[in-house]
Write a structure and sequence with these properties.
Order of helices and strands of chain A: HHHEEHHHEEEEHHHHEHHEEEH
Number of strands of chain A: 10
Largest sheet of chain A: 5 strands, antiparallel
Distance between the termini of chain A: 52 Å
Structural class of chain A: alpha+beta
Shape of chain A: elongated
Radius of gyration of chain A: 26 Å
Largest interface: A-B, 31 and 31 residues
Oligomer: homodimer
Strand order of the largest sheet of chain A: 7-3-10-9-8
Strand content of chain A: 15-25%
Chain lengths: 339, 339
Amino acid sequence: MLDDRKLEVLRAIVEDYVSTQEPVGSKALVERHNLGVSPATIRNDMAALEEEGYIAQPHTSAGRVPTDKGYRLFVDRLSSVKPLSSPERRAIQTFLEGAADLDDVVLRTVKLLAQLTRQVAVVQYPSLSRSSVRHVEVVKLAHTRLLLVLITDTGRVEQRVVELPGPVSDAAVADLRATLNAHMTGRPLTDAGALILALPQQADSAEDRSVMTAVVASMLETLVERFEDRIVLAGTANLTRSAYDFPFTLRPVLEALEEQVTLLKLFGEAVDPSRVSVRIGEENPEGLTTTAVVSTAYGAQSRPLAGLAVLGPTRMDYPGAIGAVGAVARYVGQILVEG
Amino acid sequence: MLDDRKLEVLRAIVEDYVSTQEPVGSKALVERHNLGVSPATIRNDMAALEEEGYIAQPHTSAGRVPTDKGYRLFVDRLSSVKPLSSPERRAIQTFLEGAADLDDVVLRTVKLLAQLTRQVAVVQYPSLSRSSVRHVEVVKLAHTRLLLVLITDTGRVEQRVVELPGPVSDAAVADLRATLNAHMTGRPLTDAGALILALPQQADSAEDRSVMTAVVASMLETLVERFEDRIVLAGTANLTRSAYDFPFTLRPVLEALEEQVTLLKLFGEAVDPSRVSVRIGEENPEGLTTTAVVSTAYGAQSRPLAGLAVLGPTRMDYPGAIGAVGAVARYVGQILVEG
DNA sequence: CATTGGCACTCGGCGAACAGGAGTGCCAAG
DNA sequence: CTTGGCACTCCTGTTCGCCGAGTGCCAATG
């Protein structure tokens, strides 16, 4: 059905439309790309492509525009990743290496991505669920109040205040710290919860037991609730560039970007740092159905830490975005895994 | 120059324009407000108001629109704060009281404000500079690596990893913890830095001294660098509602909202929880000159914690926004100061 | 049978012309 | 000072007609 030239035509249409933002006609196509055939031939091919649903015309007498299905085919079979230039690579590396701490790494990453792609960038903090416990600290703030601090091997720190049913001694706190560390240190967070579940029953005294119960409950909440929370955005202003057809399409996107739940869905599939996933139009969660999302995971191959993505209109420079997302993910992964 | 009726006319113009978003003419004015005079009279008043620069007409034959100066007069002399309804108050209180921790309080606050005003809401975390030290914790992560945790009385927790020049013993760490707490606990963060500056010189051994130097340097950085950082936004999608005149005006606003530095300026003057400040148009920092910002501080009267604001088009419901900002600030202040 | 040039057709975009109407400014009278 | 009347401005929406881009179809060609 679709011979090589038709595919070539589709690629040309996508490329032209992405760069000009205007429907592309048969004549313009043969001029800009040397296809070696006449406009009439292209018209036949275009008719076939439209028949198959890869392109569409906004108005009867306008040029053609790729459909979501067309972009999909383009991404899957017609495009190759556009590698970054080596100055770009160097810039990325030095920029990211200058980061002071985890917050700074994530912040720089998201800004970098937004700037490179001129789209909206979304970066997820290294997920707790994929980290291990480096250390647990227990601090007595008052007679009946403790602070639990959980430090992960990715440098993330979660803390939580626990109200106790009764007062505790300093010695008991020291005990608690030792016990928790003995059970949790070095374990992945996904397992850590189960490992401390039985602790209250093993406590020596009734007091210890009630304290332990409160602490364990709180720790479990931390492990469960905060699993994947923090997400950082940058470049939302870029949304205004790509939208002539305004409030209608922009509104739901801005709303979706404020909804953590929606954003988390973007990373649902991206668990393999070596592959970049592209979701186009209707393939996205509600509110983002007019956009395209290019995402991947970062971290070591064997241990992905979290997701990172670029979001823009479906008319997006896919090869460029895929290249940028992949490269940035690699560098961030390196820094976080080594550092 | 401006008698009572002219002021009344200005108020009517502002109110009508805010609610209809359309230039308001003399006839409509006398119909919607019972001013007791004829349109012709109003026309004379309007001419005077225009002469003085309080209103302007977009086109020769259109109605009048308030200028920034007009809004300013309206806010300063013509409007009274619109108190929230008592169901609203109750809703706010219960909603905020349901918050689990500081993050949650701030998050709920910002969402609440955005929803109440249907504008963009901006909330600053309780500023470190206006908090006191509740506790300092020192945790040994590895032989040459310590974690410093600083907990403030507003529930904020800042942590930082310090690389040491050489290994430390557990006893030294315990010492360090005790010393730091002795000097810092209960002190405002603004003073805490000065109080630990001299510590390295008092150390017993050369090893202790080098460790202390590293720790103090890191602590000072935390105190200085992180003074005012985190800011949370909500309701950016509301920007699309109030803008027919799009990309041109929206773009710089979105950019400004991503710029922490700009946002911080919004709170520059707001240090008194009992007063709500309004900045209109050109009174705002670059990028926000087409918007109005209603801001205040929250916290105890004697000890403001941070700022909180609402941002929207200059055509904004000022009485409503001022009421909402004031009320929310009061409730958040209560919760954070008591809790 | 794919390719091509020719050609009629469609339809959106754009500017001109036009009518309607809202709103104004001015003026003279109360 | 207020008011009704009135001419004027100019924005808004509509219609009309034209232009041109782009298409689909067809017959001719290699």
